[in-house]
């Protein structure tokens, strides 16, 4: 007596790659969600938790700024003698902002750009400004208020 073996079903390459493509697209969409559901990617403390002076006035370039990642703060000097403080966490997906280019605070995760003047969005995908962090100027020292 001959035993009949039914071959296992096979999927075409089109079905396999289509399924893999759908899973990959879903993962990509989840990674680039909206501003309402940020995914923390930094272990930085909340902005405003730093203690003691962060910088001297001379450390902050006019028309630019400096990022204090460990303290979660960006300090800018849009015009000479005017200092502004912002959270260093991007409002799009909670990535830390990474650089200041010209008059923009840049998040390199998804290329959002924020104004050094008021933290407003200059370039999406972020839709919300960087939160303001109150600064304390004491002589030549700058700290979080």
TrEMBL record:
<dbReference type="InterPro" id="IPR036922">
    <property type="entry name" value="Rieske_2Fe-2S_sf"/>
</dbReference>
<dbReference type="GO" id="GO:0016705">
    <property type="term" value="F:oxidoreductase activity, acting on paired donors, with incorporation or reduction of molecular oxygen"/>
</dbReference>
<dbReference type="Pfam" id="PF00355">
    <property type="entry name" value="Rieske"/>
</dbReference>
<keyword id="KW-0411">Iron-sulfur</keyword>
<dbReference type="GO" id="GO:0046872">
    <property type="term" value="F:metal ion binding"/>
</dbReference>
<dbReference type="GO" id="GO:0051537">
    <property type="term" value="F:2 iron, 2 sulfur cluster binding"/>
</dbReference>
<keyword id="KW-1015">Disulfide bond</keyword>
<dbReference type="InterPro" id="IPR014349">
    <property type="entry name" value="Rieske_Fe-S_prot"/>
</dbReference>
<keyword id="KW-0001">2Fe-2S</keyword>
<protein>
    <recommendedName>
        <fullName>Cytochrome bc1 complex Rieske iron-sulfur subunit</fullName>
    </recommendedName>
</protein>
<feature type="domain" description="Rieske">
    <location>
        <begin position="52"/>
        <end position="144"/>
    </location>
</feature>
<comment type="function">
    <text>Iron-sulfur subunit of the cytochrome bc1 complex, an essential component of the respiratory electron transport chain required for ATP synthesis. The bc1 complex catalyzes the oxidation of menaquinol and the reduction of cytochrome c in the respiratory chain. The bc1 complex operates through a Q-cycle mechanism that couples electron transfer to generation of the proton gradient that drives ATP synthesis.</text>
</comment>
<keyword id="KW-0408">Iron</keyword>
<feature type="region of interest" description="Disordered">
    <location>
        <begin position="36"/>
        <end position="57"/>
    </location>
</feature>
<keyword id="KW-0479">Metal-binding</keyword>
<dbReference type="GO" id="GO:0004497">
    <property type="term" value="F:monooxygenase activity"/>
</dbReference>
<dbReference type="InterPro" id="IPR017941">
    <property type="entry name" value="Rieske_2Fe-2S"/>
</dbReference>
<feature type="compositionally biased region" description="Low complexity">
    <location>
        <begin position="36"/>
        <end position="46"/>
    </location>
</feature>
């Amino acid at each position: 007596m001959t035993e009949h073996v039914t071959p296992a079903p096979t999927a075409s390459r089109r079905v396999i790659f289509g399924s893999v493509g759908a899973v990959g697209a879903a993962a990509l969409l989840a990674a680039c969600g909206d501003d309402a559901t940020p995914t923390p990617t930094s272990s930085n403390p909340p902005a405003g938790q730093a203690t003691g002076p962060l910088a001297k006035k001379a450390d902050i370039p006019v028309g630019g700024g400096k990022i204090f990642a460990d303290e979660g703060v960006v300090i800018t000097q849009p015009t000479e003698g005017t200092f502004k403080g912002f959270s260093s966490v991007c409002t799009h997906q909670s990535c830390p902002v990474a650089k200041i280019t010209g008059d923009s605070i840049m998040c390199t995760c998804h290329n959002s750009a924020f104004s050094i003047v008021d933290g407003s969005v200059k370039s999406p995908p972020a839709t919300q400004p960087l939160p303001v962090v109150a600064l304390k100027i004491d002589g030549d020292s700058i700290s979080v208020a």
